[in-house]
Design a protein that fits this description.
The complex is a heterodimer of chains A (146) and B (191). Chain A is mainly α and 146 residues long. Helices cover 65% and strands 0% of the residues of chain A. Chain B has 191 residues and is of the alpha/beta class. Chain B has 9 helices and 6 strands; from the N terminus they run H-E-H-E-H-E-E-H-H-H-E-H-E-H-H. In chain B, the strands form 2 sheets. Chain B has a 4-stranded parallel sheet with strand order 5-2-1-6. In chain B, strands 3-4 form a two-stranded antiparallel sheet. In chain B, a hairpin with a 6-residue loop joins strand 3 and strand 4. Chain B is flat and about 85 Å long. Chain B starts with a helix and ends with a helix. The chains are: A mainly alpha (146), B alpha/beta (191). Chains A and B meet through helix 4 and helix 6 of A and loops of B.
Chain lengths: 146, 191
């Protein structure tokens, strides 16, 4: 008997196919009907379910980023500072705190957040024309140069 | 430093705000009021937390709309029954009910979820300054008005007008409003 083509056609050498079916059965244990038990029917549903489970990554990030933004805006409003100016001033002063950390500070460490807001207000006052018209702080030796 | 229990209570308390809608745009006001009704003015905000506050709005009868909106802005209503569709202009609705325009503006501005009706119940609208005592007693703070109301000219005293640092003024002969031009005898004889 000529068996060489049969040898090429056989799928021997791989792992037992039952292990793959066992994996799918673990995922599809709660499905309705024959999708639960029959491999050929369950792969269709399980593969779709696994594909759909990756959909939530982007909207989840956007949802929580939006909440963090609203919380920071509220916290800045409570201290009389604008949100955009607050973040910009922190960035310019190389205070490297991300929005998640700032949001946590605003909720659980309110006085720390207040000190950050006061810092930004003072820093904004140091820039531009305000600095020229402002009085010099006490205890600073200027030797008549300022 | 206060007790932690007091701080917790103060953070999660539902406060009452008052807002004067006199000469304010209803749509701009709604933008501001929705923030307080949803609780977006609190650092502990979450859309499902139900941390919105009560808002008491007074002087809704003195609301102002820009340009031709009083005539041209239409409110649509369908009773659900056949031929139940009707349109009303803003001024007509305002005549029927002074608070309805602001109510609809806030309602359409809030997110269209199941919490919307609950938030609308926390919005208290009054056409004038007459607010029941039990509501006024709860009010703790005021929301700043959205639009600056400039003073009309008759509110300034004559001294303020005279002492205002004018750079220049038009000469008397210069005609700005032709209907108010004084009749000139030299030109009148030609007519």
């Amino acid at each position: 008997m000529f068996l060489t083509f049969l040898n090429f056609a056989s799928r021997q050498g791989g792992a037992d196919i039952q292990w793959k079916r066992h994996m799918y059965k673990r995922i599809a244990w709660s499905y309705y009907g024959r999708k639960r038990n029959c491999f050929r029917l369950s792969i269709r549903t399980v593969e779709r379910a696994l594909r759909y489970s990756t959909n939530s990554g982007k909207p989840k990030r956007e949802f929580y980023n939006n909440i963090v933004k609203i919380r920071l805006e509220a916290a800045c409003w409570e201290h009389g500072v604008l949100y955009d100016e607050f973040l910009k001033t922190l960035d310019e002063s190389s205070i490297q705190l991300n929005r998640t950390t700032l949001q946590h500070l605003a909720i659980y460490e309110p006085r720390t957040f207040q000190s950050l807001c006061d810092f930004t207000v003072k820093r904004q006052g140091e820039l531009g024309l305000k600095a020229a018209t402002a009085t010099t702080p006490s205890g600073v030796l200027t030797r008549g140069m300022l | 430093m206060a007790h932690n229990r007091v701080l917790q209570w103060a953070t999660f308390a539902r406060s009452w705000w008052i807002y004067d809608a006199c000469h304010q745009c209803p749509f701009e006001s709604a933008k501001r009021l929705c923030i307080f009704l949803q609780g977006q003015h609190k650092p502990i905000y979450h859309p499902l937390s139900d941390i919105g506050d009560h808002v008491v709005v007074i002087n809704t009868k003195d609301i102002s709309m820009k340009n031709e909106y009083w005539r041209k802005w239409r409110f649509h209503h369908h009773t659900g029954y056949p031929s139940g569709y009707s349109q009303t202009s803003a001024w007509r609705l305002h005549e029927l009910d002074d608070t309805k325009i602001l109510h609809k503006a806030v309602y359409s501005r809030l997110p269209g979820n199941l919490l919307r009706r609950r938030m609308m119940r926390r919005l208290h609208l009054f056409p004038d300054t007459k607010v029941p005592d039990d509501i006024l007693q709860n009010v703790t703070d005021q929301i700043r008005q959205v639009q600056l109301i400039p003073n009309p000219i008759h509110k300034y005293s004559k001294e303020d007008i005279d002492n205002f640092p004018k750079l220049f003024d038009w000469p008397e002969e210069y005609v700005i409003d032709y209907s108010k031009k004084k009749k000139d005898e030299d030109t009148e004889k030609y007519f």
